[in-house]
Amino acid sequence: MAIAKAERLMNLALCLMNTRRPLSKKELRESVEAYREAWQQGSEDAFNRMFERDKDDLRELGLVIDVDENAIDGEIGYLARRDRNRLPEIALDAEEAAALTLVARVWQQAKMSGAASGALQKLRAAGVPFAEDAEHSALQPRIPAREAAFEPLLVAARDRRPVTFDYRKAGAAGPEQRSVEPWALECWRGHWYLAGFDRDRGSARVFRLSRITGKVRSRAGGFTGDIPEHVDVRATVARFAGEGATTTATVRLRRGAAFPLRAKAVASSRVDEQWDELEIPYGNGLGADLAEFGPDVVVLGPDDLRADVIDRLRAVAGLNEVGA
């Protein structure tokens, strides 16, 4: 398995900063595993292109790399002197330190909690003024990350690795496998969502992590779809949920049922003792929401939404017949 680019850059930076003399390309190629693999599996040109890209990336990140034209037998050598790459002293006021404490506590339910706590300890050791009662503040932010899919998807999005997983849409009879290029994860209204490129459907999709079943499996190769410069997961989820929709759907709801749908309604009227008629914003995903309420909902229009809900209910009914 190829080493992630972030790890490769870190290894290169460590090599350049932990040497007393400039290192040639050949020496760096032997010291960084990813370079050695590129050279063995590809060619000298493949290694050179990778090295030049990484060197430029490190410089963009702020690392000062010195170049010696005649370092080793006339070869060019590279060195990142520590005195030129030392970070300035960290100076945070009490409010900034309190904000960092809150950010660290956000991740207490995820594996990042250990790294966050370690970072706070290092800052305390450096003299950052954390308040005595910071750990006992009345403000206790949380971003729950209980879904098993959270960690592998976060790593896959970071490393730009495609994944496959079984996904059960709301109202669907059963899960189906999806092949996705993960872009970003975001928490919205208490649920985690993944935005990415669905290879099977050839377009961007959003997936709710609580509906992913089984394991998330990484796949070899890189991304095939274009990655947007900015991924607004919340806006995409809201659009799929019908927020910001310019059209509405007309549905009848059994009285005393389907309260989440009633909360979305832009208009409501009583039909009789058993039914109410509502106008609901019509966006992607509404069919799945309506199907969850089964016989308590009747879709009057538009026709494509009605057909979608009927298909979902028939699929569930077919599954139940097989089970019986």
Q: Return Rg in Å.
A: 27 Å
Q: What fraction strand?
A: 15-25%
> Sheet bearing the most strands, described?
5 strands, antiparallel
Order of helices and strands: HEHHHEEHHHEEEEEHEHEEHEH
Strands in their spatial order, largest beta sheet:
7-6-5-4-8
The strand count comes to 12
Shape: elongated
| Overall pLDDT | 78
Helix content: 25-40%
Give the number of helices.
11
Distance between the termini: 46 Å
Which stretches of 5+ consecutive residues score pLDDT under 50? 133-139
Structural write-up:
A hairpin with an 8-residue loop joins β4 and β5 (176-188). α5 (94-106) packs antiparallel against α6. This protein is 38% helix and 23% strand. The longest helix has 21 residues, at 303-323. The two termini are 46 Å apart. The strands form three sheets. It has a five-stranded antiparallel beta sheet with strand order 7-6-5-4-8. Strands 10-11-9-12 form a four-stranded antiparallel beta sheet. A three-stranded antiparallel beta sheet has the order 1-3-2. The radius of gyration is 27 Å and the shape is elongated. It has helices spanning 5-17, 25-31, 33-41, 44-60, 94-106, 112-125, 150-159, 233-240, 259-264, 286-291, 303-323; strands at 23-24, 66-72, 75-79, 163-167, 176-188, 191-198, 203-208, 212-218, 248-254, 267-270, 275-281, 297-301. It is an alpha+beta fold. The protein contains eleven helices and twelve strands.
Would you spell out the secondary-structure blueprint of this structure?
Elements: H1 5-17, E1 23-24, H2 25-31, H3 33-41, H4 44-60, E2 66-72, E3 75-79, H5 94-106, H6 112-125, H7 150-159, E4 163-167, E5 176-188, E6 191-198, E7 203-208, E8 212-218, H8 233-240, E9 248-254, H9 259-264, E10 267-270, E11 275-281, H10 286-291, E12 297-301, H11 303-323
Antiparallel strand pairs: 1-3, 2-3, 4-5, 4-8, 5-6, 6-7, 9-11, 9-12, 10-11
